[in-house]
Amino acid sequence: MRIICPVKRVPDTAASKKVDPDDFTLDRDSVEAILNANDEWSIEEAMRIKERDGAEVIVLCMGPEQAQTTVRKALSYGLDGAIQVTDPAIHGSDAVATARVLAGALREESFDLIIMGNQSSDARTTLVPAMLAEFLDLPALTYARKLEIDGRKLTAHRETASGHVVVEAEMPAIVSVVEAINEPRYPSFKGIMAAKSKPLSTRDLGAVGVDASEVGLANSWTQIIEATPRPPKQAGEKVDDDGSGTVGAKAIADFLAAQKFI
Amino acid sequence: MTVTRLEPEQRELLDLAREFAVRELAPRAAADEAAATFPADLFRRLAASDLMGLPFDSEYGGSGQPYAVYLRVVEELARGFLAVGLGLSVHTLATWAVATFASDEVRKTWLPRMTSGELLGAYSLSEPGSGSDAAGLTTRAVRDGDDYVVNGTKAWVTHGGEAGFYVLMCRTGEEGSRGISALLVPADTPGLSFAPPERKMGLRSSPTRQLIFDDARVPTHHLLAEEGHGFRIAMAALDGGRLGIAACAVGLAQAALDQSLSYAAEREQFGRPIADFQGIGFLLADMATGVEAARALYLEAADRRDLGQPYARMAAMAKLFASDHAMRVATDAVQVHGGYGYVTDYPVERYLREAKVLQIVEGTNQVQRVVISRDLLRR
Q1: Which of A243, A253, B87, B231 is close enough to B180 for a disulfide, judged by CB 3.0 to 4.6 Å?
Q2: pLDDT category, B379, cuts 50, 70, 90?
Q3: Residue A54: CB partners within 8 Å, gap ≥ 6?
């Protein structure tokens, strides 16, 4: 079996970010970049399949040259090789353009399964797995919180607001995973050392059969027209209680109900 | 922390240690300390990430890393949870004695299980009546065929009852330091039992027990080096162990400083953050300066060790300075927090209790001064 895990290099989730005032893209130099947290779950799931059934697991990353550190991080979990798509024309690509590039790279590869995080922590669109499935004409089992494999048949528990739906597909297919699917491991130091010698293939747009006119900021279907900094944190609402507990409890319950939390 | 002189994979190793400390260790520390629960699962996870054998030869399952890198890992872990950082230091000290002085046969059999973290290490020198005067130990090992028969009581053993093996210093010959030998004692040795854990003021999740040897039989081929070499082995192991304690002290002090900085920036009195008052700012400046100095000192000592130069004096200096400064930083951290620092809602009162033990273990700070002054005056 051959599994490909598309991953993304994202700005550190905890850091405060700056946006380029001219084109509203993220100033990636101003923050430390990390491997998208959701991709840790997809890598873990792929590694579990590898350890259970045997599989070759390849990481695929679209990003600037510096994304090589992200690729190495992914490899340090014990993956077998990497494909990195790097091209200046890609800068500013939206979800559709990203899916186009990833699909181009995947068309050149043989695979049984694509496993990816359900979203990136910076863009949070959750669109790319389904778009990728559309471009590649593959079934997509998205939001999987459980994945079972029986021969060529995949069974996934698709997370919903109230529970889960059981969905099935035949391989080859695309699976996107959510946090509940597993507890990702940490890399090992031997994995970090081994990552240095794993094969890494770098490709430009031409090599993945995508024309520069289809990607990048200017050719993206979505456009950012305006960006405003997040307003400073407001002081919370203080609930006073008369000592009985009932007044305060009711006020909090009313607040939560008004916000549709309960 | 300085990031010069590191290879990319060593930087990734430190990132891994930091991430593990922040995500897995720090959130566990308060509860495990309060309940005095030994976090065995965390050591298993360190082992799964190959962090239990960093400075040992790859031939025996280690990662061949210099002490300067291994110690930074210890520091990061101690910053999250002292008992884990210190546990790794003790494990490394005991494993080092086996790696350096055991026979080839014993090394082949035992060392991979130690460097992989399958077996947790412990080191046993002190006795109820022999602490700083270590050469006065009385636990005796007598040869009987292919075994030593060991009798006596050892004290203050970190990981007592939890370890997979013990490096035991015991008397096989005459009085004094020349009659002492070192033995590798597996945890399941018949005749070895453990007293209940000591009830300590801090570092409570790291078990400290007495070992009771009652006609315990240890194979003679478990002797490290030769009979009579035990005291030298014990002292050489402590040189390395002191670097581990220094790194732990820096990690603890850094944690206390981090917590103090965030509290001082957040806590308002007289209409502004208390960090704006010079009385607090100067405390923070002194805390931070000492942390950097202590770190530089242990890394300098580690570099000397890694280069094969004499480093015992500098290791003693690093342990002395780093643990004394950690005590000061922890005390000042409580002061920065005022009343909130004295209650268990914040971690700084725990840091204060934990810092104290670092002035005592692997040689009291008075013994460090003896080591340093003797070494100074010998030249």
Answers
A1: B231
A2: low
A3: A1
